[in-house]
Amino acid sequence: MAVEKPMTTVLLFLLCITTIVSAYEGCQDKFSITDTTCSQFAFSSGGGATSNLLCYDMDKDMNTFYDLSSLPEVTWVDPRMVRIASMVTNVFENGDKIFGYAACQDIGDMRGFTCGYVGFTTGTNDANQVIREFSEIKPSNALLSHLGRLGELSQLNSCDITQRASTVGLESFCETWKQEACNEDQLFANFQKQWTLNNYLLPSARFAAGAGVTSALGQLIFYGNYTFLISIKEVTKPSINLVRILELTGARGDNESEQSYLTRFLTTRRQLQCCYPDNVWPLSATRSMDLQSLVDNFDTNQNLLAPVALPHFGQVVTGEEPDGIDARRCS
């Protein structure tokens, strides 16, 4: 004889199922996490977010950057595009329109502390590199004491994700990052911005040019993908990098519009975000949703002259936002 379950138990069960299914808003319908979709990225033998991550043992103190020698030279980008692309990235990283120069926290993505202007991380070497280069300009900075531990992390096997994610020995890191970023001389805040321009934004514009993408909106999208994939490539199979994403997307057709190409590009990126085997990157697929909404209205948005709406983050970027001190964290 069947025992009737209390109604509250049934409701809780249904609530749990609904929560699991809808946990990743950007990973529904054709972006659902399935073996068919995820196998193209080779994150695991079976695909899907719950499978084990494949990793390739890269050289110690590995190079964070791509070989750009075959790409078109780009030495200048529209300052308005820079302002808007930087603020859009900040909204994605920090949730608001106050540049997060002093931001620092462990967001649980197995990359240690995520900090600063574009989310440099202690587990993937770019935070280490930023601090080392800044120390050449200001040798007495507050972060200098962390270079020893960051150097140790950079020497770890690149597949040792757990150890690279460790913040042991960096207990005061976020405090000192904030201290330096909030310093009244603003040297560290300005350095973060210039370092990002030189090492992330200009290289991303070269990749865009190589793909035949010339609009300001397209450059913004490539910039966002460049910073995202710089961090992801270091702990995954080497074929999972920006070059591989471009390969999976395919070249822009002779008669294909830039709008069509960017849609295919964002589709690949969003599938990658959904398939990445952790609980952080699938949540970030809403970023691609907002970028796609801009591409859907390409004629209006291609030159970034109109305000840029990011509905999943409740923000509208105008390009006129102040880029000075991190007022929220340095007050």
From TrEMBL:
Alphabetical list of Pfam families matching this protein: Glyco_hydro_46
Residues making up the signal peptide according to the UniProt record: 1-23
Gene Ontology biological process: carbohydrate metabolic process
Gene Ontology CC, one term: extracellular region
Gene3D superfamilies in the cross-refs: Chitosanase, subunit A, domain 1, Chitosanase, subunit A, domain 2
Example of a GO MF term: chitosanase activity
Annotated InterPro entries: Glyco_hydro_46, Glyco_hydro_46_N, Lysozyme-like_dom_sf
UniProt keyword annotations, A-Z: Signal
Domain of life assignment: Eukaryota
UniProt protein name: Lysozyme-like domain-containing protein
Source organism of the structure: Phascolomyces articulosus
Lineage of the species this protein comes from: Eukaryota, Fungi, Fungi incertae sedis, Mucoromycota, Mucoromycotina
